[in-house]
Amino acid sequence: MDHAIYWHARLLSGDFDAVEMDDFLAWQQADEKNEIYLHYVEENWSLIEDNKAQIQQSLEKPVFKLKNHIRWAGAVMVVFVIMGAVITLLNPFAEKHITAIGEQKIIYLADGSSVSLNTDSELEVDLKDEERAVSLIKGEAYFRVTPDKTRPFTVDVGQRMIRVVGTEFNIFRDGKKFTLSVTKGVVAILGGKENQVVELQLLAGQQVSMDMEGNFQENDHIDLNRVTAWRDGQLVYDNVPLKDFIQDLNRYYVGKIILQDKELENRRISGVFQIGDRDKAIKAVENLLPLKAMPLTSNNVVLYSEK
Asked: For this UniProt entry, which segments traverse the membrane (predicted)?
């Protein structure tokens, strides 16, 4: 099991050269149980997604022989056990909603508002008499907020707060950055001391991406249908870099697509794909670019150059 954890973590890192691929395939074929262990790790990996930054730091250190990673892999196993307890203790009074990888659901709040929660996301809701407070811990959510001037609706995204009275908007929180897209009404981004200073105000059709230091990039001409297409079971890409396409697609599946040839990361791709039909998306990449797909496991696929 330790070896399965190690290899799955290496696959996720994306830093997987030809020599290491040969080692992986040799391990995979050495014992039929190895494939079973790897599949188990893939199915349960979402339990430690909140620790992926720390894991990535470990993976960026020099790679030694496999046996030297056993202690690290054992530590990951401990995380599998304790993550559930940690999540529960963070805020015992908030109502928690979590989606697994590939899962989506709609949450109806007591004030009449609703939240559509996308794949691999976590949301905390704390509705009080004086305010309606929500925290998007990770992932993506579409908010449809019932107007109530006496109770502002706020969404905590880390070092910033989103505040509205009644409107509709989409937030994607990815690590230390979030992207806010407004589809209806007006939305304010608060920062400063105790998040009381209005830093930005967005109208319908506007979008902003901001990191935790306050650096931001605005877009006044977004395609709202593309931003919210996931709610209708679709993924829409318009001339996006291949690396961004793969990163976004990987959010919806337990296994990962790995691009071996980094020289092709910035090649552009467009298309409309149904969520749940990863094979069609992979086939489109093969047809559009000089790449071929090779299954590594039942869930993981590597894209390699034909040259």
From this structure: 70-90
